[in-house]
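Supplementary Text 2. Reproducibility record for the structural model of the 700-residue chain.

All settings were left at their defaults, and a single model was retained for analysis rather than an ensemble. We include the record here because the model underlies the residue-level annotations in Supplementary Table 4.
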Amino acid sequence: RDGRQPGVRRPPSRPSRPARPRRLAGRRTPLVAGAARLLCSCVRARHAWASMQAGAPTTTNDQVILRYLKRKGYKNAEAVFAREAKELSLDAVKATQALDADMAVVNHVLFYPEAGGAGPQQYLDGYKNLKEWVHSSLDLYKSELERILYPVFVHCYLDLVERGYNEHAARLLKEYRIDHEEQHGTEVKQLAGISQAAHVANDALAVMFRRHKFNVRLSAYAWELLLSFLHSSQTLLLLGLINERLGVTLVPGAPEQDDGSPDFGADAVTLTGESSQREMTINEREVRWGALKGSVELKAAKAVNNAAVEARARVLEREEDAKTFDGPGDALAELGPKKKSKKEIMHASKRAGDEAAANLVGPLLRAPKVESCVPMPKLRDDEELAQIAEIRRRVRLSARAPPSCAFFTLCNTYGGLNSVAISVDGQRVAGGFADSQVRVWSNDADAARVVSDAGKVAGARPAVPYVLLTGHSAPVYGVAFSPDGEHLLSGGADCSVRLWSMELQTCLCVYTGHAYPVWDVQWSPVGHYFATASHDRTARLWATNRTTPLRVFAGHLCDVDCVTFHPNANYVATGSSDKTARLWEVQTGECARLLTGHRAALTAIAISPAGRVLVSGDALGHIMCWDLANGKRFGVLSAHAGPVWSLVFSGESSVLASGGADCAVGLWDMEGGQPGEDEGAPRGGGAGGSGAAAGGGASE
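Retained model, structure tokens:
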């Protein structure tokens, strides 16, 4: 380095340069230790990967790093590295060459996604051992531990298919599918169709399972028991699978006990695309579920209240004028009843007005009043007066006073009828058909006369005239009348939504934005705005004066099959094939409620006029009642033997009607089923054939 020749000594006259002291401590030691840790991490990961690829047992290279540090004299760095890497000193490593068991477990967990060396028989044996252990556990923990079986079964099957072990995957499915068909029959049937590695990458269900984790809720002690079993039985493959594919939420307290209800544990194993903590955060948000200030219903209730107060006051005043005695109470028995004061008459009249208003709109009066967060259209005076008059003519419904029924039957549809809508006043009926057409029938006096005249001829069928609306190029799946009945919306498989004028009988506008078929369309309670649900896993908010959506509500993992507005128009509720219902804020587009608990795809959804209760029906015939104030379920209605196709509340929120694929209409008494009341779950009418309300219980 200094230019000297080999073998030539430095002249003695030149003073020697003092040696620079070695600085192993201080600021350089952490740098060396950090470099050593980084080097060790890279070497360890590379060596572990190469060992698994070659099928050889995994070894550690920490002793190589320690030997290097000791040879270079980096004693402090050696101590720091040994302490942070949880390794012994070099002398201790020489004394024992055994691997740390905890490190082996960590390697199995961390390298599970790349563990291609795992044999197919390990999956079969691991799942078999896990199932036998769960079923042999104490009853106190069995109901919770059984929750882990279905997610593990799904991912064991998909792992085997993805890695080309089709024969072993078929054996796994054949032996254990019967355990899960009762609660997950639809998904198990779809899994049976996934038999090639390419299917795992392209099938929608498999992609959903692979991209998102199952959220499983367990008690802390049940989770400790599971980990203890997986460690003791050396089932490390399943331990890595659970770490990679499941999100486990531990809850304090005793394990949940099976109460025998069909929906027990349905919300304990969910697949929502959100973490468990995120689900809790969503359901903790404040929801302004009250009635809209200045709504037509409240104006009608006020008008009825005032009319009832005036009528009651006049009656009481006439009764008091007929009385002649106005003396002390001790002469009451001799001279007749005492006359009431004006204050007493006023209080009695006010009570009569409150009762009349409550009979008209029910819990809507007690609901908090909220402002709209979006610009609202202003009704014309004649429209508002007409709607108030229509509301005032309503008769209160209850279990003691069920509604009368009027049926409009469509004959000879041959499966071509996809959806039906009836206008608010009942004067029009619209149907969406598979031949891409929309037909609208009038239910007025002229139609009644046609039916009456046909009834006079034996064997004659009435041919009620209809209006044919042509414009869609694919089947029509959703139709809806506007609140004033002057317009009709239709959506179909051509990915478009059309706005029709009932007066002009023509299409006014076409709304495009969805990339896949539109399954449902619904108007806002005040008109102008409408919402759509689509196969593209989104719901969208539109305004009639714009051809592009105002909001896109994205978050569901599968098709959004049904949609509805909250009565105060500040929220939109959606139901999806991913077995969840969501409530979306119109102003921000964010999810305000995530409701889990169904075991099948949601097919219908509705919100009570009071705004607090949401009901959702699924493909198994179950109807669940939710409290939007806290996002909790408070009742389950089970009567239909097939999918629930439609749900609707009466105007005063006291009766819920449900229509199902079992050719039955159910009427449910919701008066005792409001959240926070002592009566508990909704009561009353089950489903009866041909639309009759027959006996059938409601279960909580």
